[in-house]
């Protein structure tokens, strides 16, 4: 489990095409400290498994399903990525519960800079819109954010200078894809309510 609090802005140093999958090499001095084979690291919000670790880099295999359902299919050498290790049991939950299971992708639609913050508008797939509410939580490229405005096919988030400086949302431009993970609690509530209605028939 992750919290959506990005630990560092890493970099893709190699992409190896394996036919129906890819192997990424990622540089991240913070998240690789103490890393070992089999550990999980979230890359732009996608939970990946460490295959190899050497120095300040690790490699991870990415299956076709993940490449198709996330923005990782557009990753290239030199791409900057948000990195986070799983939260330790008993640690503070600074963001919200994040699984690292991407529900879909959106696109940055526009950026509105202000003096001390910036509003970013992001497109929202129709099948995810029911899970996104004003002042609720959403994960964008692995970043735990609060929804400012929730429309039928978009939402907005307000970013403080720290988020702009230390994550990929500081450099994303209109048209760029982003990974989206909606609040897992909302999905469980929906499933439980549906089961309850079925039992009452």
UniProtKB/TrEMBL annotation:
InterPro entries in UniProt: ATP_synth_asu-like_sf, Lumazine-bd, Lumazine-bd_dom, Riboflavin_synthase-like_b-brl
Keyword Repeat (UniProt): yes
Swiss-Prot/TrEMBL catalytic activity: 2 6,7-dimethyl-8-(1-D-ribityl)lumazine + H(+) = 5-amino-6-(D-ribitylamino)uracil + riboflavin
Keyword list, A-Z: Repeat, Riboflavin biosynthesis, Transferase
Name of the top EC class for this enzyme: transferase
Record flagged with keyword Nuclease: no
EC number: 2.5.1.9
Gene3D superfamilies attached to this UniProt entry: 2.40.30.20
Pathway: Cofactor biosynthesis; riboflavin biosynthesis; riboflavin from 2-hydroxy-3-oxobutyl phosphate and 5-amino-6-(D-ribitylamino)uracil: step 2/2
GO molecular function, one term: riboflavin synthase activity
Positions of the Lumazine-binding domain: 1-96, 97-193
Lumazine-binding repeat locations: 1-96, 97-193
Function of the protein: Catalyzes the dismutation of two molecules of 6,7-dimethyl-8-ribityllumazine, resulting in the formation of riboflavin and 5-amino-6-(D-ribitylamino)uracil.
Protein known as: Riboflavin synthase
Organism for this UniProt entry: Streptomyces cylindrosporus
